[in-house]
Amino acid sequence: MLSRRRFLKFSGAFAATGFSTATYGVGIEPLRLGVTDYHIRPRNWPAGLTLKIAAIADIHACDPWMSLMHIDGIVQRTNALKPDLIVLLGDYVAGHRHHLGRIDAAEWAPVLGGLKAPLGVHAILGNHDYWDDRTVQRDGHGAPYAQKALETAGIPVYENEVLRLTKNGHAFWLAGLGDQLAYMPARRFRPVPRIGVDDLKATLQKVTDRAPVILLAHEPDIALRVPARVSLQLSGHTHGGQVRVLGWSPAVPTRNGVNLAYGHIRTQCDVIVSGGLGCSIMPVRIGMPPEIVQVTISGEQMEVTS
């Protein structure tokens, strides 16, 4: 039988462990910053083209979890990687109310404007960038203020658009998909024709040759419909579940037998889902520290690591 003394000792240890975990998850891990490397060899990728991409996802700017100083640190760390191009995968606005202060797009966008890469900096929007703009939600159309701020800072934003780029004489396409959950909260105002502004078919129809395609899609779920014509999909949105235990993200369900919560997944194409940088819903991260993702793509045989 468990004595009262032993029960109190056990209860105290359990409470202390819980408090320590909560303190770490709220006050330490969300403020960390790492770089996760992937080396991949996608199908349809030319042997002579090696490309290094830095991906930034889910900033969720707010104080104190994602201050302007912290965003500037992310910019400096990303630039120091010296990638060929940088992609921003959406969700720049706070996305939760558990903060000490919002940071306006007019403040965070110029900081992101400090990102530099030879083949440019390219962005898509995330669901929170739409959800946070009440005018866009009310009207059911229009460019969110996050998009306008990024473009003012010199960063192009793609919504079902493509761009052909070249490196060392080899061409490839960058395709930016519109957000798949853009108008989810709009039901509170008035019905809209559809929830998302994504159009995968129309986007890929704008690709005019056989050069490989890199798809930027905020929500990774589209991977289940992406054709083999696409070599690589880069996504964010999930934050790796924010709480990840032994490779399992309880907050992100498996869809059609495919776990798209985090990391490198192979479907019809290679998919890399970033764990992101900020927090959504609650400012908690446990087992899923913030990360900049660095992807090196090569037509030569390379070991896949993460």
| Strand line-up in the sheet with most strands | 7-8-9-10-12-11
- The low-confidence parts are 1-27, 302-306
Total domains? 1
Instruction: Give the helix level as a range of percent.
Output: 10-25%
Radius of gyration: 20 Å
The span between the termini is 47 Å
Strand % is 15-25%
Order of SSEs, N→C?
HEEEHEEHEHHHEEHEEEEE
The largest sheet is:
6 strands, mixed
List keywords for this structure.
Purple Acid Phosphatase, chain A, domain 2, 7 helices, alpha/beta, single chain, about 300 residues, 5-stranded mixed beta sheet, disordered C terminus, 13 strands, 6-stranded mixed beta sheet
Task: Explain what this protein looks like in three dimensions.
The protein has 306 residues and is α/β, with parallel strands linked by helices. The chain has helices spanning 4-27, 68-80, 105-112, 127-131, 134-139, 145-152, 200-205; strands spanning 34-40, 50-56, 62-63, 85-88, 101-102, 121-123, 161-167, 170-176, 213-216, 230-235, 263-266, 270-273, 291-298. It has one domain (32-298): Purple Acid Phosphatase, chain A, domain 2 (4-Layer Sandwich), CATH 3.60.21. Strand 8 (170-176), helix 7 (200-205) and strand 9 (213-216) form a beta-alpha-beta unit. Helix 2 packs parallel to helix 3 (105-112) and helix 3 crosses helix 6. The chain is globular and about 50 Å long. Residues 1-27 and 302-306 have low confidence and may be disordered.
